[in-house]
Design a protein that fits this description.
By secondary structure, this protein is of the alpha/beta class. It has ten helices and twelve strands. It is 42% helix and 22% strand.
């Protein structure tokens, strides 16, 4: 393998490794890099031979990183991101006024889309590109200017401001609510529950809600989904009981597609934050959208 001044392995192999580690999949990395999975696999093998250690363990659910690989990926992810930000700054003098905004599917469909049209019409000179994903790792992509994230507001290399808080209560389809009309909060652990298993570890799940409500429970039954939007669809179809974030489910409750179930309600442990890179300057277009979103959230309150 050829070395440069910094005695680094091939940048091609490092890029293949970084994408594979981020996606936990060589196939998805290959799709992103526009090469074959075999090409990615060969680059990873060459890198492992050069470093003298294995980087991945392949499982049925994806790649598992070794401790060495986790450390290398943390550094590469930050460095690639910083490099991409520098390139974007250089390009910004000639590119059109575009802003890429990242958020989850549920937030986009239930809160953002009913409101963002006002911004589009008010600022036609700014083009907003929407990266919508329930995998928070996608929010680290270089082209993302603003992120709407749920959590505690502390993410490496990001500046975050509070967008809005929320409350959690239980929701069900009207048919499910009629079928279980006599249920109490103590019965919740035995009911069919709809779970969201997100890549984002800060998302609040059933176990945390029940513990905060001091409801004894063991292993929780129910189906698991990767997106909140699909959970709400299943809930409206009377398939089970779901956790409802008021900001997202309020319109569905208002028009009767969902109903509140029992009187259990609590402040959400996390909040919605608006974040951006702590290392890159904020362009005028980004600042305009950021300030508009903060204003829209304030009106929602």
């Amino acid at each position: 393998m050829v070395y440069r001044h910094y005695r680094l392995p091939s940048l091609t192999s490092l890029a293949a490794f970084e994408a594979s580690a981020r996606h936990r999949s060589m196939h998805r990395a290959a799709a992103e890099l526009n090469v074959t999975p075999g090409a990615v696999s060969r680059q990873i093998k060459a890198l492992e031979e050069d470093l003298g250690v294995p980087l991945f363990t392949r499982t049925t659910t994806g790649l598992v990183l070794s401790p060495d690989a986790e450390a290398l990926h943390a550094v590469l992810s930050q460095m690639f991101s910083r490099t991409a930000e520098a390139v974007q700054v250089i390009r910004s003098g000639t590119r059109t006024r575009r802003v890429t905004l990242a958020c989850t599917h549920a937030f986009a469909s239930e809160w953002l889309m009913p409101r963002i049209g006002v911004f589009w019409r008010g600022y036609p000179e700014i083009t907003v590109d929407h990266l919508i994903s329930d995998d928070a790792r996608e929010f680290r992509r270089a082209e993302v200017d603003l992120r709407i994230r749920y959590g505690l507001g502390a993410w490496p290399d990001e500046t975050a401001v509070l967008l809005m808080t929320d409350r959690i209560y239980l929701v069900a389809g009207p048919g499910f609510a009629r079928e279980h009309a006599g249920a109490t909060v103590a019965d919740i652990p035995e009911l069919p529950l709809l779970h969201v298993d997100w890549a984002d570890t800060e998302w609040t799940g059933w176990d945390e809600v029940l513990r905060r409500a001091a409801i004894p429970h063991g292993a929780l039954p129910g189906r698991r989904f990767s997106t909140l939007g699909v959970v709400l669809q299943a809930c409206m179809d009377d398939q089970g009981l779901a956790l409802g974030w008021d900001r997202l489910v309020r319109p569905l409750v208002a028009d009767g597609r969902l109903v509140r179930f029992t009187d259990l309600e609590m402040p959400a442990p996390g909040s919605y934050y608006l974040s951006w890179s702590a290392h890159a300057p904020v362009s005028g277009a980004v600042a305009t959208l950021r300030d508009w979103l903060l204003g829209a959230a304030a009106e929602d309150i």
